[in-house]
Amino acid sequence: MLPKSRTFANRKAGSIHKMIHIQQHTSLQSFNTFGVDVEADYFARFQSEEELMALLSSPEIPIHVTSDYAHQKKILLLGAGSNILLTKDVEGVVLKNEIDGINSVHEDDDYVYLKAGAGVVWHELVLYCVEHNLGGVENLSLIPGTVGAAPIQNIGAYGVELKDSFYTLRALDIQEKEWLNFSNHDCQFGYRSSIFKTKLKNRVIITSVTFKLTKKHQLHLSYGAIKERLTLMGIDDPTIKDVSDAVIAIRQSKLPDPHKIGNAGSFFKNPVVSAEVVEHLMQIFPDLVSNKSGDGFKLAAGWLIEKAGWKGYREGQVGCYDKQALVLVNYGGASGAEIVALSQKIQQSVRDKFGIFLEPEVNFV
Ligand code: FAD
Ligand code: EPU
Questions:
Q1: Ligand 2 in contact with 324 (CB < 6 A)?
Q2: Sheet strand arrangement including 111-117
Q3: What pLDDT, in 10s, does the model give residues 173-198?
Q4: Which of 148, 198, 293, 324 has its CA 20 to 30 A from that of 6?
Q5: Is 15 one of the catalytic residues?
Q6: Distances from the Cα of 162 to the Cα of 155, 198, 230, 278, angstroms
Q7: Could you tell me what percent of the chain has a pLDDT over 90?
Q8: Which domains does the chain have, with CATH numbers?
Q9: Structure pTM?
């Protein structure tokens, strides 16, 4: 019988003293913020690009990379597991990115360019920037997850998106085993989207991200709640630290802490619709919450879900969070299938009531 886990020195990669630890039949419960308990055939962590390369060429893991990505033996890249919903055991290998390090790589009169390992905790990067008076990411305080996952859905909050301070990233093409650099333009960032969620889905592994951070700051206070919170804090000339503190306070007041209640933040995206659709809905629902977004209007999915009667709803161990209807929660022990089932009921009822389709933001695995 095969041992449950093993450690070996990977000579092929030329790193005889680099020890890679591959586990088998590993529970992923503590590696996803929904707290869903499924198993991975194989599980390994990597702390450098060399360790990643060694893992990918390891005979210990049966990775079959084919040009047909949908049918390849699965490689699931994992950061902090705060935007995934595990619906079944992972037949394949889970690779957990733990590449660390934050370094300044360039500086000019206006900007500092910081390169961060993909395994750095996102909020730690934000705190580092705030502490060193580097602006651009303060509105993105307290978003869970890793630096390497942040470009995947172009994380955003309180009027700012990752793309606003993103400079470049480095990634490995899994099939070609080739290192690639992506500029801001290459990433095709959109609302909760990038090329890594579309054309290159599951095809690359991001190992570092470089940010372009301001020395002369432009604060983004357009999101009403930030101004209100700063006023409450008695601040009328805020620093980036004040903005970060305000965002942290707002987030803590309405979003569930995944350490206490399983969740993955917003379960659905806010739907973007045309002016005609908004006008039509406003005639029936005058208090509809919407904001101009590009050529269209972004509807508040939380409002649609609340008006459809789901806010605070609980069914067994799954539910719709009582302070933010856009967040689905696992009160403990729920399966991925139960969470999916609730999400489908919500989708159906919002479609029935408003004629609007809610697209999941969370990545189903
Ligand atoms: P994971 O969940 O581990 O992975 C997410 C996806 O990215 C998976 O498909 C995975 O395979 C892929 N991936 C991860 N790392 C890599 C890599 N290095 N290379 C290639 N692919 C990779 N998001 C927002 O945008 N704004 C918010 O305000 C926000 N608030 C949240 C609040 C809470 C309480 C929670 C739980 C989540 C919230 N999120 C928010 C969602 C989540 O924090 C982000 O999507 C985050 O970027 C996910 O990071 P992660 O490391 O946990 O990614
Ligand atoms: N609303 C309700 N009921 C609710 C929730 C919201 O009516 O239960 C209405 C309110 O009118 C509120 C408006 O919706 O003013 C917007 O709510 P909120 O400010 O909480 O933001 P959101 O649109 O629900 C988005 C992001 C969040 C991000 C916040 C802050 C998406 C899918 N979600 O949520 O991102 O933190 O704005 O910028 O865009 C995430 O992606 O996981 C996430 C948490």
A1: yes
A2: 102-107, 111-117, 204-214, 166-173, 178-183
A3: 998 889 999 999 999 999 999 999 99
A4: 148
A5: no
A6: 5, 17, 23, 28
A7: 85
A8: 20-97 (3.30.43.10), 102-214 (3.30.465.10), 262-364 (3.90.78.10)
A9: 0.94
